[in-house]
Design goal:
Elements lengths: L25 E7 L1 H16 L14 E15 L2 E6 L4 E5 L8 E3 L2 E3 L4 E9 L8 E8 L5 E2 L1 E7 L8 E4 L10 E13 L2 E5 L10 E16 L10 E10 L4 E10 L10 H8 L11 E4 L3 E5 L3 H22 L7 E6 L12 H8 L3 E8 L4 E9 L2 H17 L5 H13 L11 H9 L5 H4 L10 H16 L4 H12 L7 H5 L3 H14 L25 E7 L5 E7 L4 E11 L19 E7 L2 E2 L3 E2 L3 E5 L4 E7 L10 E10 L1 H4 L2
Parallel strand pairs: 7-16, 10-14, 18-19, 19-21
Antiparallel strand pairs: 1-20, 2-3, 2-15, 3-4, 5-6, 7-14, 8-9, 8-10, 8-12, 11-12, 12-13, 13-14, 15-16, 17-18, 20-21, 22-30, 23-29, 24-28, 24-30, 25-26, 25-27, 25-29
């Protein structure tokens, strides 16, 4: 996958008429199994609901052992989890149930434990975004002319918010300015001038009013959800309870957003939802919608349909960047909310069946003699399913097919998870938990011939993991891309064994490490293994130097360690673990995070990691090439900074023997 992912939307242009002359056998590709993951989630949620007992007695074997109040900084945040670094530098890894989430996982069980959340902030006005609903206190006359500048806007949650204006006292004339509260949607931004959409009235005869912001104007945040929280934000207070499982959870927390951020809205979906907030959420009858690269037939609401089309266009852009090629015709998608509205619209029977199952399918037919391909997506209203299927259609229209099942489904799973400017893993937490807890699947079984599409969501998960690793790992990415192009273009002289046979043990090792350590936030490109740095034994007077970066995984040294030998090392420099964290030496903090640690690799087997720290004389616990890294969570490396210079030698007394 290209690292140069750009988030942009192409200019609108007229789509060419779709060539429907394709004839031949209809083949179903990529029946998405998101419904199975959803069913599993619902099942677990039902189990979790049984444990929703009073706070001090969740179940017989799940109780609160102790509680403590913590202040500090958010180091990182993932679905259901948060790491807080307190004022003494101690990291607290805690479970937290955000608003809108049904449970947290404690002791392997989903448990309802909603946290009381308050998130506040005073952000600079340049973080105001199109589509935000805000409240402003202004001086206005009865014609909607605003006097003076506005010094602050209060961000309002969208749910159930009524857009309106309220005067304290109605102005008597156009020259009479009275205090007025405006609640509206940001409809236009031009430097310090804001256009605010509110319902038509004498105040806003065009459906909007405009005003100027003061140079030091602020966007005020006061919410009860974590959606805007990011690493570096201040934890004003947090009540953390320790459970009998040994895990900790948040019951009550207040967080203050820092102004040092690039945007106020974090998730891509929320950005799009905000962008299209002026559109209706009411269901619509079936209709045709067009974008640059998609022809969408749908009964989704106007808002949901536009959000979906924006996601599809971004996905299209990312996939076309990766393959350096794109279809010559639009991708046709039928996305159906209510099948009863489509009875007389000639949908393919298999497409109807999959939609009824709350799933999706891509139907491709070809006429090879004429080089014609038609590929049509059928999907329920789930955006993820439609994106998955659209990757199949993209590949079929561009290359003639989507490749063998392992490749087609693995890449389609990647495609529906791809987001602009994001290299980190960001997938369904149920998939992560399955891959981490299931018995590891052999790479040879994942790429075996004779597989069928639509087999199970678990099989899709293993295919995703392999494709994500190979597409993002610099050791294999270039050859993997060429393999995919060959497989989709039906070049039968290439195969997984041909492409990676000589390095299959290396891939298998890296794959096992990936599945063992990954989670949302994990960066394959930062955790790549260095197979090119050769190692040798140090002589009695020999020494070696290595640079070790805080933001990377295990990093090779040129030192081969023999069991029982004694070594000295000195590590100079400093590094930080997390945005805004203090500089640490190789000794790390009081909790052991940020320590310099080592591991030995020998014949694709790893020793247990061992602590080295800043300066030490130590005896080798085994034999192998020495690898070093900063001790930090594998999903938390991306925001680390700094590097150490490490000098290693054999202990002189050992060398004289």
């Amino acid at each position: 996958m290209s690292d140069k992912r750009l988030f942009h939307f192409h200019r609108k242009r007229e789509l060419r008429k779709i060539h429907r002359a394709c004839r031949g056998e209809c083949v179903g590709v990529g029946s998405s199994l998101r419904r199975d993951v959803r069913s599993a989630a619902i099942f677990l949620g039902v189990i979790g609901a049984m444990f929703a007992l009073p706070s001090h007695s969740f179940a017989q074997k799940l109780t609160i052992v102790s509680s403590q109040d913590v202040q500090g900084v958010v180091r990182d945040l993932a679905p259901g989890e948060m790491t807080i670094v307190d004022s003494e530098g101690v990291a607290h890894s805690v479970k937290i149930q955000n608003k809108g989430e049904s449970a947290v996982v404690l002791g392997g069980t989903r448990v309802r434990l909603p946290a009381k959340i308050r998130v506040t902030g005073s952000l600079p006005s340049d973080l105001i975004e199109q589509g935000m609903i805000v409240r402003a206190q202004v001086l206005s006359n009865r014609n909607g002319r605003i006097q003076g500048e506005v010094s602050q806007l209060q961000l309002i949650e969208e749910d159930g918010t009524k857009l309106d204006h309220q005067f304290e006292t109605e102005p008597e004339s156009g020259k009479d300015y009275q205090p007025c509260q405006l609640t509206g949607r940001i409809d236009g931004l031009n430097r310090n001038k804001v256009r605010l959409a509110i319902p038509d009235s004498d105040l806003s005869r065009k459906g909007w009013v405009s005003f100027k912001l003061a140079n030091d104007a602020k966007l005020l945040i006061d919410e009860d959800r974590l959606d805007r929280v990011a690493g570096g934000d201040k934890v004003v207070r947090a009540k953390i309870v320790k459970m009998s499982t040994g895990e900790s959870a948040v019951r009550d927390i207040e967080i203050e957003l820092t102004s040092d951020r690039q945007q106020a809205t974090n998730s891509f979906h929320d950005q799009l939802a905000q962008r299209f907030s002026s559109l209706s959420d009411e269901p619509m009858p079936p209709r045709e919608l067009r974008s640059d690269h998609f022809l969408l037939y749908t009964d989704l609401s106007d808002r949901s349909a536009q959000i979906l089309m924006a996601k599809l266009e971004v996905m299209y852009d990312l996939v076309s960047q990766y393959f350096r090629k794109a279809p010559r015709q639009p991708v046709i998608c039928y996305v159906v909310r209510d099948l009863s509205q489509w009875a007389d619209r000639g949908l393919a029977p298999l497409g109807v069946a999959k939609i009824a199952e709350r799933a999706g399918v891509t139907l491709t037919r070809t006429q090879r003699s004429r080089g014609l391909v038609e590929s049509v997506v059928y999907s329920c209203e789930d955006h993820d399913i439609c994106q998955h299927e659209a990757v199949h259609a993209f590949c079929a229209l561009t290359f003639g097919s989507a490749g063998p099942v392992w490749y087609a489904e693995g890449m389609a799973e990647m495609g529906q998870y791809w987001k602009p400017d994001q290299l980190a893993v960001d997938i369904n937490p149920h998939v992560i938990r399955y891959l981490q807890e299931a018995k590891p699947k052999r790479m040879a079984d994942i790429v075996a011939a004779g597989q069928i599409t639509g087999d199970s969501w678990q099989a899709y998960a293993w295919r995703w993991a392999l494709c994500h690793l190979l597409a993002n790992n610099p050791n294999y990415a270039k050859r993997f891309k060429q393999l995919g192009l060959n497989l989709m273009s039906d070049r039968n002289d290439d195969s997984f064994d041909n492409a990676f046979g000589p390095v299959a043990p290396n891939i298998s090792f890296e794959y096992d490490q990936f599945v063992q350590n990954f989670g949302n936030g994990y960066r394959v490109d930062l955790c790549v293994w260095d197979w090119n740095t050769s190692a040798k034994k140090l002589g009695s007077s020999g020494h070696a130097k290595a640079k070790v970066f805080a933001c990377a995984g295990w990093q090779a040294t040129r030192v081969w360690i023999k069991e029982g030998q004694s070594f000295d090392h000195v590590a100079e420099g400093s590094w930080g673990i997390g945005k805004g964290s203090e500089d640490l030496s190789a000794d790390g903090n009081s909790d052991g995070e940020g320590q310099l640690i080592g591991v030995l690799l020998n014949d694709f087997k790893l020793s247990k990691p061992f602590v080295l720290g800043k300066k030490k004389t130590w005896v080798a616990p085994g034999e192998g090439q020495l690898y070093l890294r900063c001790r930090d969570g594998w999903t938390e490396l991306a925001d680390n900074s700094g590097e150490l210079s490490v000098a290693i030698r054999k202990t002189p007394a050992e060398g004289k023997k």
